Structure formats: C-alpha cells, structure tokens
Amino acid sequence: QVQLVESGGGLVQAGGSLRLSCAASGRTSSIYVMGWFRQAPGKEREFVAAMKWSGGSGFYADSVKGRFTISRDNAKNTVYLQMNSLKVEDTATYYCAADSNVFTTWHIANQYDYWGQGTQVTVSS
Fold it and tell me: Which of 82, 93, 98, 124 has the most other CB atoms within 10 Å of its CB?
C-alpha cells in the first residue's frame, strides 16, 4: 500500500503563491505516476498536473499551464505543486494521487489507486 500525506494549503490573496507538498510512504517503489487534482464545490474533480515518480517533465492542465509547477524531491519521497499567480478560480480542495500502472491515463482521476486526504486552497480577491 501507499500512503499520501498532503500539506501546504491555506488562504492567500489573488496573485500570491502557495506550495503544496505530498509525502509518500509505504510501497513507494510501486509508484509510476503522481498527480494533482482539485475539486471545487458543485464541480467535478479536475486534473491539475502529473509527472512520473522517477522524474522528468510535468504534464499540466491548460488552466494552470505557465503558473503551476509539479516537482519531486527524491530524498524526501515528496511531490510538490508550486502555485504562482493564483486566481480566485483556483479555490478548491487539492488532492495528490498515485498510481502504479504504466498505462494510466494521467488526467483521469478514476485511474489512480491512492489518494491523499486533500488540502484546502482558498484564494481571495
């Protein structure tokens, strides 16, 4: 099993920045892809970003491309989501997710086996 623990959410003003962290434990060697998703009240869960656990470039939703960056720290088994130039519409609960399947479709939430507890991000105007 894989356990994911998120941190870093909070309240920021529009234009500000936050960095979310997702620490993985357990059978981390089985992880192939890590993703970030978000869900606002009354809306479906939305893909934000993903990357291979082994490293490399990230894959981003058009809505956050150029503003958000996904990265990893191998020594800490942690994946980050750096969020810059935040907008009110970025307000949501943010979740990290992991999956072991090489053929996982990265932007589809139901493809992922493991999920963090979620962390709230609120952007005020």
Answer: 98
